[in-house]
Amino acid sequence: MRTAVAQACANVALVKYWGKRDPRLNLPAVGSLSVTLADLTATARVAASDTDSPPVFTQDGRPVDGIAAAQMSSFLDEIGRRARFAGRLATAVEANFPVGAGLASSAAIYCAVASAAASVAGLRVSRGELSGIARVGSGSAARSVFGGFAEWSRGDRDDGSDSIARPLLEEHEWDLAVAVAIVSEARKEIASRDAMEHVARSSPLYRGWIDAQEEDLANARRAIAERDLDRLGEIAEENCLRMHATCLAARPPVLYFRTATVAAIEAVWELRRRGLSAYFTIDAGPQVKVLCRRESLATVAAALGAVPGVLRVVSTRPGPGVRMIEGEAPWR
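Above: the chain's sequence. Below: its structure in token form.
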């Protein structure tokens, strides 16, 4: 049986993706920009079978069923169809961080699965094209194809061919760090894709969210090019709070924050009052990610670790793009 193994990192959006213009293809309503995180990884083993048995999806050694299994099965079938692959594909995934808890686990998982499945099926693509394939599984997976800082374009085409990510800065080109305060390891009560649809439909602030995005993207791009942490951090915090305000204004509201989330935000603000460059962002979940300089990481991690309700802090840095552990890389 032919197999391939790929590993991808989670990423944290600094200018966020929230809302879709096409849910079927995971085409975003807005562009987004992220940093890939070195120490939050998912590893996917994909195997080919000549039998007609349905694809199998296991996660951390346990079979997955329900909606998650159906989505993965459909994704593997789509890769097989693109490659004109006659067999079936099955995947076993392992992640070294909580899944479904607001840490972009789907980005790492689907990016790794896309790479390993394409390798097994014999699909040969550019990294940009691989980004578009990974996007079909999970929107934010488009960005995890690349290391360091990456931007995922909204695109205009109906087929999604121009809605792909591109690298902005490699992981070794800016000496930054990220502290991740984990306040809950439980799965989110409302999945991101369901929350996006609900918020876009019911929040009176959603139009303003859409209209502000292009300016945030342009300013963030400039800040990254100039290695301006304070400017990038300001943009990331504002964009984060705008997204969550849009969620809170939905009817009924969507609230991902926990008590410890708010306390961690206040701890970051206190660090800045003391003169430290530290800036938070929070995706669709309760976890707080803090961008800072490498030499400040220990201080930031200690401050977050002292917040009541923070379970643990992961200290990390900008990480690499997807890589093959076993099998031929599908990208040209």
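The mean pLDDT is 95.
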